[in-house]
């Protein structure tokens, strides 16, 4: 284990990244545990307030992220200073992304259906950082040969093509595929070739006069969501807690 850590983490200079990821994941787990205890009315924890103002944990998260980010730049990426700054950055990022949905909606949607976006953002970030630790380079640069890397034009063309595939996947309404495609180009290529999701920019532009393609896209999205929405919701509920039930609108006579 020690040999693997030295060869794959310490020697390539990835120790700060590993520390940041560990702090990020641990902060999210601890934060969600505390908020779920507060929600259930258990334990010694409670909301942090200043008078009547509820201080969300995104506030100290922003402060720690700024301090950790600038601290990492000031340390030059080496030594104990860089490691400490990476931990601060990971903690801050964990606090911020745990309330990502609040920032997105500018509303306290933490325990609502919209609050699931926070869990998705945390899982996606942790997965991408894990891929970077594993050695995957953005836009598949690690797949290039030494000769191709020395040829700047060829490397730039490869990055541009991979970016184009990721952009097409994004325009087809496949945000997760596009993000992972930045690290693993094959994912972006597959996502760019498959049917777009209904309502996406690609579908509105290219399926408008193609009713058969539009119908196939709707049918495929229906089957995909029916197959995977249940397991995805179960995992999200396990990670972040079950959202509050959406109140049904009052029926008028």
Write the layout of secondary structure elements.
Blueprint: H1 2-10, H2 15-40, E1 49-50, E2 53-54, H3 58-75, H4 79-98, H5 100-105, H6 116-134, H7 146-150, H8 152-171, H9 175-183, H10 185-193, H11 201-206, H12 211-240
Antiparallel strand pairs: 1-2
Helix pairs in contact: 2-4, 2-6, 3-4, 6-9, 8-9, 8-10, 9-10
Sum up the structure in keywords.
253 residues, mainly alpha, transmembrane, membrane
Task: Name the helix and strand elements from N-terminus to C-terminus, one letter apiece.
Answer: HHEEHHHHHHHHHH
Outline, from the CA principal axes? flat
Distance between the termini: 70 Å
What strand line-up does the widest sheet have? 1-2
Protein name: Integral membrane protein
Transmembrane segments: 15-34, 55-74, 80-106, 118-141, 153-170, 177-196
Region (Disordered): 234-253
Keywords: Membrane, Transmembrane, Transmembrane helix
Structure description:
- The protein has 253 residues and is an all-alpha fold.
- The chain has a domain of 135 residues.
- It has a two-stranded antiparallel sheet with strand order 1-2.
- The mean pLDDT is 87.
In short:
This protein has 253 residues and is mainly alpha-helical. Helices cover 70% and strands 2% of the residues.
């Amino acid at each position: 284990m020690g040999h693997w850590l030295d060869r794959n983490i310490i020697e390539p200079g990835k120790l700060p990244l590993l520390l940041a990821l560990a702090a990020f994941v641990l902060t999210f787990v601890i934060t969600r545990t505390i908020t779920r205890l507060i929600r259930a009315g258990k334990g010694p924890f409670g909301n942090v307030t200043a008078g009547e103002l509820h201080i969300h944990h995104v506030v100290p998260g922003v402060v720690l992220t700024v301090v950790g980010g600038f601290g990492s730049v000031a340390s030059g990426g080496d030594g104990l200073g860089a490691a400490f700054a990476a931990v601060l950055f990971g903690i801050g990022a964990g606090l911020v992304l745990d309330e990502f949905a609040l920032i997105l909606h500018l509303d306290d949607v933490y325990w609502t259906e919209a609050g699931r976006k926070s869990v998705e953002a945390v899982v996606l970030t942790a997965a991408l950082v894990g891929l970077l630790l594993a050695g995957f380079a953005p836009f598949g640069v690690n797949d290039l040969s030494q000769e191709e890397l020395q040829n700047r034009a060829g490397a730039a063309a490869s990055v541009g093509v991979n970016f184009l595939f990721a952009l097409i996947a994004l325009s087809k309404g496949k945000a997760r595929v596009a993000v992972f495609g930045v690290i693993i180009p094959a994912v972006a290529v597959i996502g760019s070739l498959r049917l777009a999701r209904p309502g996406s920019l690609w579908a509105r532009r290219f399926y408008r006069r193609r009713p058969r393609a539009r119908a196939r896209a709707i049918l495929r999205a229906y089957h995909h969501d029916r197959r995977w929405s249940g397991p995805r919701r179960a995992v999200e509920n396990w990670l972040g807690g079950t959202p509050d039930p959406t109140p049904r609108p009052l029926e008028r006579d």
